[in-house]
Write a structure and sequence with these properties.
By secondary structure, this protein is α+β, with helices and mostly antiparallel strands. The chain has a domain of 107 residues: Gcn5-related N-acetyltransferase (GNAT) (Aminopeptidase, 3-Layer(aba) Sandwich), CATH 3.40.630. Helices cover 22% and strands 30% of the residues. An 8-stranded mixed β-sheet has the order 1-2-3-4-5-6-8-7. The two termini are 14 Å apart.
């Protein structure tokens, strides 16, 4: 982790990620408060139940120099995907939890979601349903059934061990 990195391991400058379709370079970085509408557009487009006020508060967390808890994947000034963290211990005591992750419909399957998760420098946990289980399996998450039928939880190792 760089000395300028926040608690999530991504510094303000971000991390470049190869764009799978050969298009412009995609950058994963902490989101800014000005990007709240674009972040909510991506989350809403994925039909996720994300509260705009919660996302706004998490964006503010990073605005004062403290670690941000919302990451975005951006190419040519457009937010392609967003990852909202919910803090340590929400899903697993040893990992930061993913509260929401979404990618614009037209960009799914092109490595945007993978780049968002792989930008994290620490173990990460997630709770999810069966339709996105293959995504977490490809990322190497240890997956087990959750208490709710059709739901799973998983913990991924940090990117330094991949």
């Amino acid at each position: 982790m760089s000395p300028d990195a926040g608690a999530n391991g991504v510094d303000a400058a971000g991390v470049d990620a190869a764009d799978a379709d050969g298009g412009p370079t995609m950058r994963v970085r902490e989101a800014t408060l000005d990007e709240l509408p674009a972040v909510m557009n991506v989350l809403d487009g994925a039909l996720l139940d994300a509260d705009p006020e919660v996302v706004r508060a998490r964006l503010r967390d990073g605005a004062d120099g403290s670690p941000g808890t919302v990451l975005v994947a951006v190419a040519e000034g457009r937010v392609l995907g967003a990852l909202v963290l919910d803090g340590a211990g929400a899903h697993d005591a040893a990992a930061v939890g993913i509260d929401a992750i979404a990618v614009r419909h037209a960009r799914r399957g092109q490595g945007v979601g993978t780049a968002l998760v792989e930008a994290l420098d620490e173990p990460v946990a997630a709770a999810f349903d069966a339709r996105v289980r293959p995504f977490y399996e490809r990322l190497g998450f240890a997956i087990e059934p959750a208490d709710e039928p059709g739901r799973y939880r998983g913990v991924g190792r940090d990117s330094s061990t991949r």
